[in-house]
Amino acid sequence: MGLLVVHHDEAVGLGRLAEPLAARDLDLVHVDATTDDLSDPGAHDGILVLGGRMSVAGPLEEWGERELDFLRAADDADVPVFGICLGSQLLALAHGGAVATREEPEAAIVAVHRTAPGRDHPVTAGWPDGAPAIAHHSDEVVRLPDEAEQLLLGSDGPTLWRLRGSLGTQLHPEIDADVLERWIDAGLVDLSHVDTDALRTRAREADLFLRAAGTSLVLRWVDGL
To answer: Which domains occur in the chain, in start order?
Structure first.
């Protein structure tokens, strides 16, 4: 089975997903959407679109326009996409949604719950209601595409949503407390309004749950391809 992993930023990679994905019988192909040509989406069984520090809330750079075309082609070819953070924003834009920059970035550990459709979806049905997840972003989807439905709620924007066979989440199921600490130290978003010591402590306290719930969420999608 072939999985295309689309990168945008060397600081924001697969995180804790790298090891379990490598352990599966997958043909993993990695591309950098900002520099590489995106291949025919039909050559893959699924596409995992990762995050990045760049903004797509305003006019898009050339790479962004190319990626939107690629995501539309994936939808036409019935190839499922899982977009994480920036990946979710791009997926929404590709299908008529809208993205905006927040007044203040959201950086928090949030309690996440299933919606009624989320209880029946094969990926989110196994999500334990109230489980913690990491939100860390400056931009967010402010209008979902037509026909999209929310499957998980917890962040103050669309938390995890579905459009046909594809999923998008503003959360970071791929990271844990260690990665979050590196992001805080690197200043990936403006956290001047956040008690970062409290955020670090909360992430440490919830780390086992963050790892288990986030990793299994993405792996349920992969195993369903």
So the answer is: 2-223 (3.40.50.880)
